[in-house]
Design goal:
Number of strands: 0
Structural class: mainly alpha
Oligomer: single chain
Amino acid sequence: MQKPVIRAFYLVLMLASSTPALAQVEVIEIDAAVTSPVVIDSQSRNMTDGASASATNRRASSNSEPGQLYYQLQLLQQEVMTLRGQLEQQAHELRRLKQQSLDRYVDVDRRLAEISGSPVAQNQLPTANTAATSKPAEITTSRPARTPPTVAVATSPPGEYAAYRSAYELVRAQRFDDAVAAFKDFLNRYSSGQYVPNAHYWLGELYLVITPQDLEASRQSFSLLLEKFPDNSKVPDALYKLGKVHFLKGNPERSREVLERLIAEHGNSGSTAVQLARTFIDENF
């Protein structure tokens, strides 16, 4: 009887001792089963939140880029309009200065022609009284001794004055391209005439105001005047213009050399070109 009782007692102890272990195992399994989804859910939420923030940032960035580009485009358009206005203003000022220069030289040329007596003599030719009582020799000898020999009426080829005056009027009418053609034709027809120096000078001026400028042709015209007619009254003006042409052609050394030659040779002549040369040197060298 005691042995079965003892066996039963041991069996109960074995069962009692094994129960907590089983319970602990089950608790561990349950904890793992419960906590694992929680960890996964937390990681998933973090990833979702990060993706949402990134997408929001991308949308904000993509929405702001067109606005920034549009703003920059407006700034560029305003700058272009401002620069265009400044360019038009400077172009207008340049045209005004060129016109003033041409008007000044036209007036000077007209006064020199009147002083020389050529227009007066030409206007007197059609009158009967003048033709009957005046002789070419008497007209030339009645002029002051300071009259340049190149403007004497007796040496003027027939039609030269009319051709020169016709080309000259084109300058006054601001038909510059036509004036260039007229003066070139004049030089071809009257290569040894009185007004050849004037024609060379006006060609040099005209090549500076036509569009586009022809700086090399202008340089050649002024240089021909200086080489062939070194004693002509237009030499100071031609020297000043030649100096400016060299400067525009990118040769400042040669420009200053010509301008200083003008000042050295004609500094006491009272020519306006001398003062202009001094001012140009002060402002550009």
